[in-house]
Amino acid sequence: MAKWTRYLVPHLYTADPHAHVFDGKLYIYPSHDIDAGIPENDNGDHFAMCDYHVFSMDEIDGEVTDHGVALDVEDIPWAGRQLWDCDCACKDGKYYLYFPVKDQNDIFRIGVAISDKPEGPFIPQEKPLEGSYSIDPCVFRDADGSHYMYFGGIWGGQLQSYRSNKAVEGGQEPLDNEPALPARVVKLSDDMFQFGEEPRAVLLLDENGEELKAGDHDRRFFEAAWVHEYQGKYYFSYSTGNTQKICYAMGDNPYGPFTYEGVILTPVVGWTTHHSIAAFKGKWYLFYHDCVPSGGKTWLRSMKVCELEFREDGTICTIDGGGR
Ligand code: FUB
């Protein structure tokens, strides 16, 4: 187990916690899990979330404030069902909440909602971002002020249904010896409401410079992209899905390619694993979730935090998730 871990919210089930520091305060943007009574399946239908709450903290071990409902699926004009992992970015005093939800044809798209405050409430745009697809947006602000969105997730996240940013009929995962499906990265437009370019593949390379293969379930990308920068290097971290690891790869710029480095978090109790990494008041933290408080119900997760340690060479010390 990690040296110090803390469950953050006892009164709601929360997952996929994406943490950011805005004006010296830590804000967390998680999914809000509910028990919708839908049987578990590989499509993730049982993750039937309907709204988001935003949380904030002045100290990592201090009180966690629940700011209430920040966005409700009922208020998104184009939405159908399933509000999955969201993320927030700040530009010029405005806050942009990016979220995936299935549209009325049951296709995941990524939407954006805006607020003057980091905790919302957020007002959604009339339509999803043009050309968006799949799930799990995370937004990284580079030192020059550009914002990059990383997104994608296979199986229930529908990424296997796209090639070169176009939907393909009957899309499947590649064969085991073919390159794995990549996450996508795209620079956002200056106004933050659209993609500023065509999304590109996030290439994950092995130690020989070869792309990770689809059959390499212990290392290939599945979902839950996150990017942070540390000492001039860009770290792309992600979930391996069915093998339940949070792994990371390192690169020299926000587009990659990224070379696989190792495991940040071993399996947790539950099925999904999803995280974020943020520095707050001089220390680095891993935010993640597990299903211990719900007694192992995979669709009722609880977010938590622990300290993250870097070695001198910039590699990350592995944290024991306590599962499997
Ligand atoms: O919370 C719903 C989905 O489960 C997320 O979008 C995935 O990353 C997984 O955590």
Please characterize this protein's 3D structure:
Keywords: Carbohydrate metabolism, Glycosidase, Hydrolase, Polysaccharide degradation, Xylan degradation. With about 325 residues, this protein is mainly β. It has one domain (about 5-305): Tachylectin-2, Chain A (5 Propeller). The protein contains no helices and 23 strands. A hairpin with a 5-residue loop joins strand 10 and strand 11 (about 145-150). The radius of gyration is 18 Å and the shape is globular. Bound molecules: beta-L-arabinofuranose (FUB). Beta-L-arabinofuranose (FUB) binds near residues 16, 47, 85 and 224.
Write the layout of secondary structure elements.
Blueprint: E1 5-7, E2 13-22, E3 25-33, E4 51-57, E5 64-72, E6 87-91, E7 94-102, E8 108-115, E9 123-124, E10 138-141, E11 147-151, E12 162-163, E13 166-167, E14 184-187, E15 200-201, E16 204-205, E17 223-230, E18 233-239, E19 246-251, E20 258-265, E21 276-280, E22 283-290, E23 302-307
Parallel strand pairs: 16-20
Antiparallel strand pairs: 1-23, 2-3, 3-4, 4-5, 6-7, 7-8, 8-9, 10-11, 11-14, 12-13, 14-15, 17-18, 18-19, 19-20, 21-22, 22-23
Bound molecules: beta-L-arabinofuranose (FUB).
